[in-house]
C-alpha cells in the first residue's frame, strides 16, 4: 500500500475522534466523514506501520445512517465531524466510544454505563465560540474556524451549531472587519450568546435560576440547553447533606460550587485562572454562599500546601480538569485526603478512563458512568464518573 493508491473500503465502525474505520487487506484505515455501513472509494494519504489514513473520493454505497449535512461548510470546516450522521446514531456511536475507552484504556470489562442524555437541541446550542482570523492582508481576510487539520482558516458567514444570537453578533463583527472598521489585530475573537457585539469583559450566564459572572475569555460549559442537567446529575451523585465538605478542583467561575454550597457544610474551590477566581468569589457571594472558599493556583500547588482537609476532612471531590485530564500527582494528592467519593467530569473519555484506571489500581471502584451529549455534531462527549473507595 502506497500514498495515492485507491481502494474500495467498507466502514465497520467510527472511532473516538470521528474517523470511520475500515480495512484494506489486513491494514486498518482511518477515513474521516464516513459512518459505519458506508462503502467508499478511498485514496491513501499516509501509511504508518500499523495503520493508514485516507480520504473519501467517492461514496459507492451510502450507510442508512448517513444524512445530508445542515452546514454548507461541512467537510471543509473543522468545527464539526458528525453532521453527515443522523442524530440518533450519533448518540449510539458516542455511547459505544465511551464504553470502548473504559474497556480498553480503563481496563474495566463492563463499565457501569448509563443511557446517554441527548441534547434538547442538536443545532444552535453553543453558548460561546472562538473565531479565527488568518494572517493575510485586509483584502484577503478570512474569518471563521480552522480546517479539519488546523492548517488554514475557513471563511464562513454563519455556523449551524452556535446560538443564533452569536451568528447575529458575528455577522456584525464580520461586516465591520471586512471594511476595516473593527479591531482585527487579534487572531482570535470569542463570542457569547445573548451579549451582543462588542463583547463585554465579563459575561452573565444563568443556570437553573442562578446567575454567574464569567470572564470573556474564561471557560464555561458550552451547551446552553444541557448545562442545567449536568449540574443536576452531579448534585444527585454527590448525595450531599449539610455535614459534608466538598473540594471543587478546576472550579472555573464556580458553577458547581454555587450549587453544592447550600447542600454542604463547606466548599473549597481551586482554580488557576485569576480572572475566573475573581468571578468564582463574586458568584459565591452573589448567590449567598458564605461557606465557600476559592483558592487561586494550580491544583497540585494548592493541595501540596496541605491545609485543605486539615480542619475540615473532605467527603466529596469534584474534578473537572482540562481535556488532557489529571496528572498522577494530582490524583495521588487527592487520595491522601481520603474522600468518600470522587465525581470526575470530562469531555475526553480516553483521558478520563486512564485516570479512573489509576484510581482503580489503588482500591477505588467506578460505580456509575453517565454520558451527556453536550456537543452534538462533533466528536466530543461529556461524561460524569462516580468513583468510590472500595470497602
Strand order of the largest sheet: 15-14-13-16-17-19-18
- CATH topology of the largest domain, by name, is Rossmann fold
CATH architecture of the largest domain, by name, is 3-Layer(aba) Sandwich
Total strands = 19
Radius of gyration: 22 Å
Query: Oligomeric state of the chains?
Result: single chain
Plain-language structure description:
The protein is of the alpha/beta class. The chain is 23% helix and 28% strand. It contains 8 helices and 19 strands. The strands form 4 sheets. It has a 7-stranded mixed beta sheet, sandwiched between helices. A 6-stranded mixed beta sheet has the order 1-5-6-4-3-2, with no helix packed on it. Strand 2 and strand 3 form a beta hairpin. The longest helix has 18 residues. It is globular and about 65 Å long. The protein starts with 5 loop residues before the first strand and ends with a strand. The model has no long low-confidence stretch (mean pLDDT 94).
Set out the fold topology.
Blueprint: E1 6-10, E2 13-14, E3 20-24, E4 27-31, E5 39-47, E6 51-61, H1 87-104, E7 128-133, E8 143-146, E9 153-155, H2 164-178, E10 188-192, E11 202-207, E12 210-215, H3 227-238, E13 245-249, H4 255-260, E14 266-271, H5 274-286, E15 292-296, H6 299-304, E16 316-319, H7 328-336, E17 341-346, H8 349-360, E18 364-372, E19 382-389
Parallel strand pairs: 4-6, 13-14, 13-16, 14-15, 16-17
Antiparallel strand pairs: 1-5, 2-3, 3-4, 5-6, 7-8, 7-10, 8-9, 11-12, 17-19, 18-19
Helix pairs in contact: 1-8
Amino acid at each position: 500500500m502506497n500514498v495515492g493508491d485507491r481502494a474500495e473500503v467498507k466502514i465497520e465502525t467510527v472511532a473516538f475522534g470521528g474517523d470511520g474505520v475500515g480495512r484494506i487487506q489486513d491494514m486498518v484505515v482511518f477515513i474521516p466523514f464516513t459512518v459505519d455501513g458506508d462503502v467508499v472509494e478511498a485514496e491513501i494519504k499516509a501509511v504508518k506501520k500499523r495503520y493508514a489514513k485516507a480520504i473519501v473520493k467517492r461514496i459507492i454505497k451510502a450507510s442508512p445512517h448517513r444524512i445530508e449535512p445542515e452546514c454548507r461548510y461541512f467537510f471543509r470546516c473543522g468545527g464539526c465531524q458528525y453532521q453527515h450522521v443522523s442524530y440518533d446514531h450519533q448518540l449510539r456511536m458516542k455511547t459505544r466510544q465511551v464504553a470502548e475507552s473504559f474497556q480498553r484504556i480503563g481496563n474495566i470489562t463492563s463499565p457501569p454505563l448509563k443511557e446517554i442524555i441527548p441534547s434538547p437541541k442538536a443545532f444552535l446550542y453553543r453558548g460561546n465560540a472562538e473565531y479565527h482570523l488568518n494572517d493575510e492582508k485586509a483584502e484577503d481576510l478570512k474569518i471563521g474556524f480552522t480546517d479539519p487539520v488546523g492548517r488554514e482558516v475557513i471563511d464562513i458567514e454563519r455556523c449551524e451549531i452556535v446560538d443564533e444570537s452569536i451568528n447575529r453578533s458575528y455577522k456584525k463583527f464580520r461586516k465591520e472587519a471586512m471594511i476595516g472598521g473593527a479591531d482585527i489585530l487579534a487572531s482570535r475573537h470569542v463570542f457569547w450568546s445573548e451579549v451582543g457585539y462588542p463583547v463585554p469583559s465579563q459575561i452573565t450566564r444563568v443556570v437553573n435560576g442562578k446567575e454567574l459572572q464569567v470572564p470573556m475569555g474564561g471557560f464555561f460549559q458550552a451547551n446552553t440547553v444541557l448545562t442545567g442537567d449536568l449540574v443536576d446529575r452531579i448534585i444527585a451523585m454527590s448525595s450531599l447533606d449539610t455535614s459534608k465538605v466538598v473540594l471543587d478542583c478546576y472550579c472555573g467561575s464556580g458553577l458547581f460550587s454555587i450549587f453544592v454550597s447550600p447542600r454542604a457544610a463547606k466548599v473549597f474551590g481551586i482554580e488557576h485562572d485569576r480572572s475566573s477566581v475573581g468571578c468564582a468569589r463574586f458568584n459565591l457571594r452573589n448567590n449567598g454562599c458564605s461557606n465557600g472558599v476559592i483558592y487561586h493556583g494550580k491544583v497540585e500547588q494548592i493541595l501540596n500546601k496541605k491545609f485543605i482537609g486539615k480542619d475540615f476532612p473532605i467527603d466529596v471531590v469534584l474534578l473537572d480538569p482540562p481535556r488532557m485530564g489529571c496528572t498522577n500527582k494530582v490524583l495521588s494528592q487527592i487520595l491522601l485526603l481520603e474522600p468518600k467519593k470522587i465525581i470526575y467530569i470530562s469531555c475526553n473519555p480516553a483521558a478520563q478512563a486512564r485516570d479512573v484506571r489509576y484510581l482503580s489500581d489503588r482500591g477505588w471502584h467506578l460505580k456509575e458512568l453517565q454520558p451527556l451529549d453536550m456537543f452534538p455534531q462533533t466528536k466530543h462527549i461529556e461524561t460524569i464518573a462516580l468513583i468510590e473507595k472500595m470497602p
